[in-house]
Amino acid sequence: MSVSWDNESSARRFAEEYRLPFPVGHDTKAVIGTPYEVESTPATFFIDKNGVLVERKIGAFEGDMEAAFSSRIEKLLAQ
Fold first, then answer.
1. Residue range of the domain that includes 50
2. pTM higher than 0.70
């Protein structure tokens, strides 16, 4: 998700450049950002099958982003 203060075209270019393995939407009205208290970008939130926030990461991932996401998501799905 890109937040209301992000430039949407820049966010889309970032997603394409880094081949993000998930969809990226633009939260123009802060409908998602406000409840999760998104105050800066990048910010990543991992939410379990019950809709519970289990991890919040502020800042960019270092190294292999796809591997970092895959391992966290696999753990969530296994719960």
1. 2-78
2. no
